[in-house]
Amino acid sequence: METRLTIPISADSFKAAEKQIKKARAAGAEMLELRTDYLEGLSVDLVNKLISKVRGRSKKKALPVIVTCRDKKQGGAIDYPLNLRIDVLVEALKAGAEFIDFEYENFLVPENRGRIRVALSQSLKGKLILSAHNFAAKFENIGVLRRHITTLYPAAIPKIVYTANHINDCFDAFDLLHNTSGERIVFCMGQAGLVSRIIAKKLGSLVTFASIDEDSATAPGQLTAEQLKNLYRYDSINAETELYGVIGSPVAHSLSPAVHNAGFADTGANKLYLPLLVEGGKAEFERFMSNVVNKGWLGFRGFSVTIPHKENALDYVKSKGGFVELLAKRIGAVNTLIIESRAMSDERRIRAYNTDYIAALDVIGSAMGKGRSELKGLPVAIVGAGGVARAIVAGLADAGAKVKIYNRTIARAERLAVEFDCDFAGLDDLPNINARLLINCTSIGMHPNINETPMLKEFLKRDMTVFDTIYNPAETLLLKQAKELGLKTISGMEMFINQALVQFKLFTGKDANPKLMRKVIAERLGDKGI
Ligand code: NAP
Q1: pLDDT digit string (tens) for 242-280?
Q2: Is 156 helix (H, G, I), strand (E, B) or coil?
Q3: Is 133 labeled as catalytic in the residue annotation?
Q4: Which of 469, 504, 518 to mutate to test the pocket of ligand 1 (most atoms within 8 A of CB)?
Q5: 62 or 362: which carries more pLDDT confidence?
Q6: What three-state secondary structure class fits 127?
Q7: The whole model's pTM is what?
Q8: CA distance 104 to 89
């Protein structure tokens, strides 16, 4: 089943529609949906004129169209009378529209059904999409709903669309696409449903909708055609595409999809990386994981894991008897999961890693010109005692460095220090620092508070290397002042890129191009970036 990238035309006048059609073509639309319920002063003549416009002069350039005049109760824009809405669809068929979209609920009424059936029987190529929308939540049973639609009119293309209030709600839509064949349109609305719009093509939905730009979206969670094509590799998605993604909450601003998708494209891998918004706690995370692991046909192969699920991910892999890298176990958190699929078996084993500490140790080693074994005995001051501090402390302690942890909440610093046999103090002890390497693992100095620093310039020591894990901005005030004193510095951006490189290798077995990753991040962060 070939999926058509469909752009809705939601203009209030013929002139505005003409402009939108031009833009939609330029954005790469493979089909247009004429949302005639947006047109002011709607008439059958106006719809006729619009269809001729889409047809254009050249047959080659003609895009197929869906003509829709949506009922206000099901998300329509202007509340036009039912009779006029049916007139519009009948006229659209006469004018050569490939598809008309009518609400299943209204098609249940024999009189409406009769008029549309007659028009369809007189049309050479026109097909009927019977649509059901639920803007509040998922349908009770979309399998039964689909059966009802196709029993009522076997030639109909069922369109079943509902709001996913959680990413776990999307699995009903995925199951329906997987378990049925033929022409059908199934996806979820809302932020939690975003992923269903992207993988609709992998799963063979007849249509996925995208908007020309963010302002012209006709449904919640609709992506722009540019995002779908450039960020989410739409053109190269097929049934065999393997899926990856970042699991977290929030994930909307994560740089990982841009970085990994650019890497996949660059290495010619048939892989796609998605933002996977998994809201809630351990129970929601586990439900998501059991869905993606048990539904092997979805093709999920690996994940980055971020806040708040790093500990949940570790617990999950342990409970399934998967492999957990030794230091990740001690850190108590993992940020990378790999789902192994074994030939001739449905069993899937999961491997878990923590690439934060690997990346941090790598960038420290290359900036200071030291191999891991040479970090033994190195005096290091870590500011902060949260998740990132924990991974770096574990890595450095494992390498034999002499670590002292400074934190606002001293009890938290103490707990971490006891666990990894380090020293600890409050932030007020920082002026007495005696370390060759200072690492900021707090958010002090992060955008938008770019004029803050965890360590005053006057207390930085001459022979110190200064590492700030913050990557937005790439040069924090701490790093700027350290540079002014001629000290060696390491940016959080280097750690981020390194971390992505290590993950990419775990995902693909190949090395990604660090220059490409830097370029992608700089483009995404704009002037805040590197
Ligand atoms: P976290 O677990 O929430 O820990 C935050 C730490 O910052 C705690 O030690 C906290 O102290 C301290 N802190 C926060 N606000 C503070 C303030 N106003 N004054 C003093 N201390 C403050 O966060 P995390 O996940 O470890 O992330 C920490 C930093 O790492 C973030 O800035 C993030 O950008 C960066 N990071 C970088 C990368 C990378 O790849 N480069 C990856 C992930 C994170 P209390 O214990 O007293 O609350």
Answers
A1: 999 999 999 988 999 999 999 999 999 999 999 999 999
A2: coil
A3: yes
A4: 469
A5: 362
A6: strand
A7: 0.92
A8: 14
